[in-house]
């Protein structure tokens, strides 16, 4: 799990033994921060077997002391049924709590709930409102989703230039969805002049990050030879990478190519 590895790497880089930290947390459950962190270690299974139920209870305890991250993780546990019965309505309420404290990930979640209509009536204007809040607070996925709203005219007037700028911001932060959509803009001339070479570079970047749509689009470009030298072997390779991740169009195209 990426987050787990990130935490372990951070501890190692700072010459802190994660086992020592875990033991220290066990013996110092006297403030919301250490309660949350012990929950986080249990959530990810760092120096212990992952125990989502225990993690949830620790998050609840810390959240009662108004710990923002703990409240966010309580929301996540309710959303996905981690360590507790799934309850999207309660998840929404916890995301509301942290959003009122200007916590970007919570604001993004509210946008997503309104966008899809999870536990609330679907409301694209409210989705845009919360995506914008989260994007302004630096949330890269929110920038991408807000860009889609502007591209498609969902809950806001269609504006390709604005969509392009948002995808660009998300991409500059290294978000693979943002990189893929920025590539799409250069590929299709959405909010910017067509630049096939730039599109190829960005699709390649997204593909290398494991983005299945980026991989699929890169495969198409290699197959058709647009902005790059035609290369059927590379096309098949990237169709395969995308297909492995469940991209249906990639799976279909791969079957067709292998027939020939």
UniProtKB/TrEMBL annotation:
InterPro entries the UniProt entry points to: ISR_Activator (IPR052748), Sel1-like (IPR006597), TPR-like_helical_dom_sf (IPR011990)
Protein name in the entry: HCP-like protein
Organism of this sequence: Rhizophagus irregularis (strain DAOM 181602 / DAOM 197198 / MUCL 43194)
